[in-house]
Amino acid sequence: MEIRIALKQHVGAPCKAIVKVGDEVKKGQLIALPDGLGANIHASLSGKVTTIDDAITIMADENQPDDYVKIEDTESNLDAIIAAGVVGAGGAGFPTGIKLNSEALKDGYLMLNAAECEPLLAHNIKFIEENPKLIIRGLQYLLDITKAKMAYIAIKKKHRDAILALSKESKEIPNIELKFLPNMYPAGDERVIVREILGEIMEPGVLPSEFQSVIVNVETLKNCVYAIEDRKPVITKDLTVDGKVKEAKVFLDQPIGMSISHYIDACGGFSIGSGEIVIGGPFTGKRAGDKAAVTKISGGILVGVEFPHDERDFGILACECGADEARLTEIVESMGGRVVASTKCKRMIEVNGRYRCNKPGECPGQAESVLKLKAGGAKVIIAGT
Ligand code: SF4
């Protein structure tokens, strides 16, 4: 079985491989180093390196050890997180060691993003339900690293079992508190979390650190705990497989680099009427390419319905927190349609050359945009939210 470990699984430049074709590598071995902003990459399985391009391909040995090569001894827990190559596992991929290493967080706020924001995704909540003690220990490690005064767990009210489990484990701990998010998309957007927890409005382009805050995702926290307690590098990923498969499933601790098709097969294969495969959530996911494999930031493997055929002229209404123009265009073209007009939600404003939503989740009526698209020749409109 071959695995493909991408050299870019994070914000920043692709890592540089430190192994060569023909090398035998061990599970957990460091195989690529950051080249600027980035994070260490380790082999998720033992085997032989067969090719190196934008990924290191490894022909995995038939028999895999239970153990792995541990990260080196480090002077601090923060260094362990850096050595393990922890990055934002919720999709952002920002190196966690850099995020946590900020003086601005002293006496500030650590926030756990437990929103599991996009529909269908379920692996974060499943992990919390099964491992609430680890979550609380993880928050205590990060409180110690950042010197923040409070840790808040931001979770949607609908996740009752996860809330009960976390409440039980944290009730005697004065600096860990649960905070509830509305059951809406995008409740997990960091500006929504800061707004709901601190009552502060983050203008587009402003970072949580401006509010003495850092936000980490559930699986990112889990990877920090693995690095600190087990000296384990980031070699596994939690996944939700859903949509047009025979049986939707959640998979925890799966080797990074495994092919996406492996998980579709593990769900009994495609069901009737299946269409494209999307990596990520339904709103912000991207279509999987031929060689798609699990990375540190892939959360969902979703199989869509077969596209209906529609040759009409389309207008596109993009959203920052949902599908962007490129994704909407891809969908229109997959249906056989043509994009004749395009606009953005009126809440999107330009900040440093990028359009950002200034009130995520407080979505306005779009009558004005619809009229504009119709005036541009659109017979039908597709929106990103
Ligand atoms: S306000 Fe507009 S850009 Fe922001 S989340 Fe809602 S639809 Fe998207």
Overview in brief:
The protein is built from 10 helices and 21 strands. The protein is α/β, with parallel strands linked by helices and 385 residues long.
Question: What's the topology here?
Answer:
Blueprint: E1 2-6, E2 16-17, E3 24-25, E4 30-33, E5 41-42, E6 47-52, E7 55-60, H1 77-83, H2 96-100, E8 109-114, H3 123-130, H4 132-146, E9 150-156, H5 160-170, E10 176-181, H6 190-198, E11 213-217, H7 218-230, E12 236-243, E13 249-255, H8 260-266, E14 274-279, E15 286-287, E16 300-305, E17 313-318, H9 325-334, E18 338-344, E19 348-351, E20 354-357, H10 367-375, E21 380-383
Parallel strand pairs: 8-9, 8-11, 9-10, 12-16, 17-18, 17-21
Antiparallel strand pairs: 1-7, 2-4, 3-6, 4-5, 6-7, 12-13, 14-15, 14-16, 19-20
Helix pairs in contact: 1-7, 3-5, 4-5, 4-7
The protein binds iron/sulfur cluster.
Give a structural overview.
The longest helix is centred in the middle third of the chain and has 15 residues, at 132-146. The protein has a 5-stranded mixed sheet with strand order 13-12-16-14-15, sandwiched between helices. The protein has a 4-stranded antiparallel sheet with strand order 1-7-6-3, with no helix packed on it. It has 10 helices and 21 strands. The model has no long low-confidence stretch (mean pLDDT 95). The protein has helices at 77-83, 96-100, 123-130, 132-146, 160-170, 190-198, 218-230, 260-266, 325-334, 367-375; strands at residues 2-6, 16-17, 24-25, 30-33, 41-42, 47-52, 55-60, 109-114, 150-156, 176-181, 213-217, 236-243, 249-255, 274-279, 286-287, 300-305, 313-318, 338-344, 348-351, 354-357, 380-383. It has 4 domains: 2-60, Beta Barrel (OB fold (Dihydrolipoamide Acetyltransferase, E2P)); 77-230, 3-Layer(aba) Sandwich (Rossmann fold), CATH 3.40.50.11540; 236-305, Ubiquitin-like (UB roll), CATH 3.10.20; 313-383. A hairpin with a 2-residue loop joins strand 6 and strand 7 (55-60). 47% of the residues are buried. Helix 3 runs parallel beside helix 5, helix 4 (132-146) packs across helix 5 (160-170) and helix 4 (132-146) crosses helix 7 (218-230). The chain is globular. The two termini are 39 Å apart. It is of the alpha/beta class and 385 residues long. 24% of the residues lie in helices and 27% in strands.
